[in-house]
Design brief:
Blueprint (H helix, E strand, L loop, with lengths): L15 H27 L14 H21 L5 H18 L12 H11 L1
């Protein structure tokens, strides 16, 4: 789809495609926040009493986090964001947050860190 010169960039210098990808990410982050709110109010394994589709709050959050990951993938595939920078920030956040959290298992090293966290949580 070609863009006319006057429609090529908004005032914030984003192309319509960039604007759309960021809008998708924003929407998915909002949906993830909503799912977290339901978990904090009602619990991980609670279900919506009005919509009986069998989905727990846990499964809804997993879906929304997957949607967030998909939106981030769209941004990195289009070179709007750098995957390496995101990974570096992720590792830094894990290291930094371990200093300030009280109830989280310690994880080390980027490769397999998520798997180590899952295994430790399963033992708890």
């Amino acid at each position: 789809m070609s863009e006319s010169p006057e429609m090529a960039k908004f005032f914030h210098n984003l192309t319509p495609a960039q604007h759309e990808r960021l809008s998708i990410l924003l929407e998915e982050l909002g949906e993830a926040a909503q799912a977290i709110g339901k978990i904090l109010r009602h619990g991980l394994d609670s279900h919506n009493p009005v919509i009986d589709d069998g989905s727990s709050n846990r499964s809804m959050l997993e879906k929304e986090i997957g949607d967030v990951f998909a939106a981030v993938s769209m941004l990195t595939a289009a070179s709007d964001l750098d995957r390496g920078s995101i990974e570096s920030a992720r590792r830094w956040k894990i290291e930094k947050s371990q200093r300030w959290t009280h109830h989280q298992p310690r994880i080390s090293g980027p490769p397999g860190a998520e798997e180590a966290l899952r295994e430790e949580n399963a033992r708890l």
